[in-house]
Amino acid sequence: MKKITKAVIPAAGLGTRVLPATKSMPKEMLPIVDKPAIQYIVEEAVRSGITDILIITNRGKGLIEDHFDRVPELEAKLQGGGAAKEKILKEVVDISHLANFYFVRQKETRGLGHAVNRARSFVGNDPFAVLYGDDVIIGEDPACGQLIRAYEEYGKGVLGVKKVSPEAIHKYSSLKVEPLHDNLYNCTDMVEKPTPDKVLSLFSILGRCVLPPEIFDILDQTPPGVGGEIQLTDAMRTLARSQGMVAVEFTGKRYDMGNKLGILQAQVEVALNHPEVGKDFREYLKELSKTL
Ligand code: UTP
C-alpha cells in the first residue's frame, strides 16, 4: 500500500466568526501563545509522516506563505546575538524546513469541498490527508497519524471524529457508525449540519480526514449543499455509502480556532503547559480566579 506523504490544509475561509480580528489577518495565523495556529497543524502533519503540504489560500493570506519562508534580514539580525538569539534563530529557520510547501488559491469562497478540489493536481493518484486550517489538535500521538494508521489497516477513506453534545450537533456533521474495534468505527452515511430529525449519531467529523483520490471525481459532481457551499461532507457521504469509510475517535484535545471561545481555550490551555511562560501564567491564573 502506498504510504501517505501528502497533506492538504484548506485555509481559504473568510473567518467571519472571528471578525474584526480576521479582517486583514488570516485566522490561521492567529497565535496560540507564540506560534500561529497553522504551524501547530503543520507540525502535527510532519510528526505523522507527511513530507509535502499544499495550503489552499485566497486573497489576503500571503502572511501564511511568508511564515513558512526564510527571512534573511531577520536571520542576519539574530545571528551572533548570544545563545538566546541563536536559539530563536534556529526556531525561525526550522519552520521553513518542516516540509515541502505548496500553495494554491481558491479564487472564490465556495465551500470546503470546493477548496479541497483545488488540490487535484497536487494529489494526483495518491491517497492524502486533509487537516482543516482552523482545527488545532494537541496530543502526544498526532491525530493525523492515527488516521493514517487506520487507512493502512483498512485501505479506505478515514474520518477523524469525536462526540459532540446534542445541543451542538446541528453546527457539525453527524455520522452513521458501527463499531469495528477499539476507537475505530465503520461509517456508512453522514449528513452536514443536521436538523434534529436528521441526526444519525453524535459522532461528528472534527478537522481531519484521509481521502482516496477518487474524491475528486465525486467533488466534481457534488452540487452546492448547506449554505449554498460545496460541502466536503456531501462528497464523503457518496464515498461512505458506496465503499464505506472508517471513523477514528482520535485522542488529543481539539481547539476550534474558528470561533472566539475556542481561541481563548487554546490560548489558556497551551499557555499553562508552555515551558517558558507556563509556571508564571499558572500563578497569574490562580490569583485572577480568586477575583472571579
Ligand atoms: P469554516 O466554515 O469554519 O471556515 O471552514 P470559514 O468560512 O472561514 O468560517 P466562518 O463561518 O466564515 O467564520 C472550515 C475550513 O475550511 C476552510 C476554512 O479556511 C477552514 O479551514 N474553507 C472553508 C476554505 O478553505 N474554503 C471555503 O470556501 C470554505
Overview in brief:
This protein is α/β, with parallel strands linked by helices. The chain contains 11 helices and 13 strands.
List keywords for this structure.
single chain, 292 residues, alpha/beta, Spore Coat Polysaccharide Biosynthesis Protein SpsA, Chain A, nine-stranded mixed beta sheet, two-stranded antiparallel sheet, 24% strand, globular, binds uridine 5'-triphosphate
Which helices and strands appear, and what pairs or packs with what?
Elements: E1 6-10, E2 31-32, E3 35-36, H1 37-47, E4 52-57, H2 62-67, H3 72-78, H4 83-96, E5 100-105, H5 112-117, H6 120-123, E6 128-131, E7 135-138, H7 143-154, E8 158-163, E9 173-181, E10 184-192, E11 203-211, H8 215-220, H9 232-243, E12 245-249, E13 253-256, H10 260-272, H11 278-290
Parallel strand pairs: 1-4, 1-6, 4-5, 8-12
Antiparallel strand pairs: 2-3, 6-11, 7-13, 8-11, 9-10, 10-12
The protein binds uridine 5'-triphosphate (UTP).
Structure description:
The chain is of the alpha/beta class and 292 residues long. The protein has one domain (6-289): Alpha-Beta Complex (Spore Coat Polysaccharide Biosynthesis Protein SpsA, Chain A), CATH 3.90.550.10. Helix content is 36%, strand content 24%. It has 11 helices and 13 strands. It has helices at residues 37-47, 62-67, 72-78, 83-96, 112-117, 120-123, 143-154, 215-220, 232-243, 260-272, 278-290, and strands spanning 6-10, 31-32, 35-36, 52-57, 100-105, 128-131, 135-138, 158-163, 173-181, 184-192, 203-211, 245-249, 253-256. The strands form 3 sheets. A 9-stranded mixed β-sheet has the order 5-4-1-6-11-8-12-10-9. The protein has a two-stranded antiparallel ribbon with strand order 2-3. A hairpin with a 2-residue loop joins strand 2 (31-32) and strand 3. It is globular, with a radius of gyration of 20 Å. The structure holds uridine 5'-triphosphate (UTP). Uridine 5'-triphosphate binds next to helix 5.
